């Protein structure tokens, strides 16, 4: 260091001792550097970075609303007294949490029995309330599998039905005539879980404007 006019000017920063931790201006982020790119998810670290640069307002995407439709006469809501042949609609609880964790807003629709007209009406109501509609069950080829024919009627065309995934093969995807995406997941909880990671989560992240849609 050099002393000039009663002031100390550092010529070279010491590597140890007093002054070793003085940072040069711009050593953290250089002038003109991009701090965050469009599509970055705002977690705790990103929020700290924005606050460091005194940014109290940034443009963000609206979290997409995702409607959940559970189908099947055997299903009853969580907390119900179970009767003969009934099971708790546990999968919608799981999917609701997964939707929220992925950045969406879960919208739980009432359980729909094995009735075609009721299934159609549930989908229509869900499309009025959400940006994306996800159903569980009814996408196979049994007598009570009414979701796929309902999607056939509501969509301009089914973009695909059945995928080469196990578990999770009977999965359907289409876009309704009003432009809402519909995803029919299988009723098996593990199949729904796999289908969510592969199809629903990327759709939510696409709606959020994220750059990285898929898992590593």
SSE inventory with pairings:
Elements: E1 2-4, E2 7-9, H1 44-52, E3 65-70, E4 75-76, E5 87-88, H2 90-102, E6 105-108, H3 116-129, E7 132-136, H4 147-154, E8 155-161, E9 172-176, E10 181-185, H5 189-208
Parallel strand pairs: 3-6, 3-7, 4-5, 7-10
Antiparallel strand pairs: 1-2, 8-9, 9-10
Report the sheet-strand fraction: 15-25%
- Class by SSE composition: alpha/beta
Radius of gyration in whole Å, from Cα? 26 Å
The major sheet is characterized as:
6 strands, mixed
H/I helix tally = 5
Shape: elongated
Describe the structure.
- Helix 2 (90-102) packs parallel to helix 5 (189-208).
- The model has no long low-confidence stretch (mean pLDDT 90).
- The longest helix is centred in the last third of the chain and has 20 residues, at 189-208.
- The protein has 5 helices and 10 strands; from the N terminus they run ββαβββαβαβαβββα.
- The strands form 3 sheets. It has a 6-stranded mixed sheet with strand order 6-3-7-10-9-8, with helices on both faces. A two-stranded antiparallel sheet has the order 1-2.
- Helix content is 30%, strand content 19%.
- With 216 residues, it is α/β, with parallel strands linked by helices.
- It is elongated.
Task: Please provide a brief summary of the model.
The protein is α/β, with parallel strands linked by helices.
Descriptive terms for the model:
about 220 residues, alpha/beta, six-stranded mixed beta sheet, two-stranded antiparallel sheet, 5 helices, 10 strands, about 20% strand
